[in-house]
Design goal:
By secondary structure, this protein is mainly beta. The chain is 0% helix and 54% strand. It contains no helices and 11 strands. Strands 2, 4, 5, 6, 9, 10 and 11 form a 7-stranded mixed beta sheet that branches. Strands 1-3-8-7 form a 4-stranded antiparallel beta sheet, with no helix packed on it.
């Protein structure tokens, strides 16, 4: 059974930092691209950052220079270090595992709330 479990969300003041973690189990972690997405109230879910199976990251323009995604293949973990947080970063953050092969499997976590106060 596949599980993606996010943790590390919370309430922080503008300018503060949080580190999100996603623990993956039940998948061949090395063969998955791992990503963080977010969904704010009334908005569509959007990409925040992805790290591919080779460890190469990609970021949304809105978080470049502030957020850092990383993965630990030995521990089946993916992290999102978020610095210089803004109220606009307030959202539920979701972890996603997407198998690298065409037509591969795709899994989502339950999400963790990040709230940034001004």
């Amino acid at each position: 059974q596949v599980h993606l479990v996010e943790s590390g969300g919370g309430l922080v003041q503008s300018g503060g930092s949080l580190r999100l973690s996603c623990a993956a189990s039940g998948i061949g972690f090395d063969f998955y691209n791992m990503g963080w997405y977010r969904q704010a109230p009334g908005k569509q879910r959007e990409l925040v950052a992805v790290v591919n199976s080779r460890g190469i990251p990609t970021y949304a323009d809105s978080v470049k220079g502030r957020f850092t995604i990383s993965r630990d293949n030995a521990e089946n973990m993916v992290y999102l270090q978020m610095n210089a947080l803004k109220p606009a970063d307030t959202a539920v953050y979701y972890c996603r595992a997407a198998e690298v092969r065409i037509g591969g499997r795709d899994y989502w976590g339950q999400g963790t709330q990040v709230s940034v106060s001004s």
